[in-house]
């Protein structure tokens, strides 16, 4: 039984120093099959000095505010209101910002979410794609499917690149999240080392996008993952990724 003992780091240099710290024996078997790693052997963010918030402990008021601000961003992006109205709203928004700016949450604060099948997933609370407290996140909520994860998201003009279409960088971000999450729930959390995106067809705004990530194979700390985005049943983008899992020491 492997007892996880992690490379402790002071955050500020995030996970990088942990990942580049001295590695000892890799507790994972070569060519391990997916879905075999006990949850207890997964890295505990607290060992890295990172606080963990349970997703269901996020106050409803904050969830509601996040959704409201997301709508505000969409409204601002597309507004054609007259200058006087804009000036009035600007002043109000700035006053509200001052009221709510209580100081930054600790960088790297994690959130633990329980998926529909009971699997726990860890991510940063302000993750730009999925973070529940981040109004800039669409957000993409993924659920466990066989071999990986899947979720549906609909993007507004806030995510526009070409006319009526999703920005290519955001397509890559959605895929990165899906492959990272698939690797995390099927094996253990890690970082993306390589992400190749193939843009097959335009990805439309205002259309439900089905985002999927599935683990193909694992080799020591390397996890090879595929990802897809589908709109109206058609693949618009696909990805091949290499994730490198956070190392653990023998304890
Ligand atoms: C405590 C809990 C925290 C949890 C935390 C996770 C949160 C869970 C969120 C999930 C959802 C997020 C989804 C978004 C995911 C991102 O957006 S991640 C952000 C973007 N990625 C980065 O910033 C990574 C930057 N790169 C690096 O830090 C380092 O290069 C890496 C990737 C950590 C690898 O460094 P390393 O640990 O020193 O790896 P190293 O020992 O050199 O290599 C291990 C193996 O991988 C191979 N390898 C390494 N890099 C490459 C490469 N680029 N190409 C090919 N092979 C490679 C090596 O050849 C070696 O192979 P073998 O010898 O075993 O055959």
From TrEMBL:
It is an enzyme of class 3 (hydrolase). One of its GO terms (biological process) is fatty acid metabolic process. The keyword Oxidoreductase does not apply. One of its GO terms (molecular function) is hydrolase activity. It is found in: Cell projection, Ruffle membrane; Cytoplasm; Membrane. It is a peripheral membrane protein. It catalyses: dodecanoyl-CoA + H2O = dodecanoate + CoA + H(+); (9Z)-octadecenoyl-CoA + H2O = (9Z)-octadecenoate + CoA + H(+); (5Z,8Z,11Z,14Z)-eicosatetraenoyl-CoA + H2O = (5Z,8Z,11Z,14Z)-eicosatetraenoate + CoA + H(+); tetradecanoyl-CoA + H2O = tetradecanoate + CoA + H(+). It comes from the Bacteria. InterPro entries: HotDog_dom_sf, THEM4/THEM5_acyl-CoA_thioest, Thioestr_dom. Its EC number is 3.1.2.2. Residues 164-234 form the Thioesterase domain. Keywords: Apoptosis, Cell membrane, Cell projection, Cytoplasm, Fatty acid metabolism, Hydrolase, Lipid metabolism, Membrane, Transit peptide. One of its GO terms (cellular component) is cytoplasm. Pfam families: 4HBT. The keyword Lipid metabolism applies. Belongs to the THEM4/THEM5 thioesterase family. PANTHER family: ACYL-COENZYME A THIOESTERASE THEM4. This is Acyl-coenzyme A thioesterase THEM4. It comes from Nocardiopsis kunsanensis.
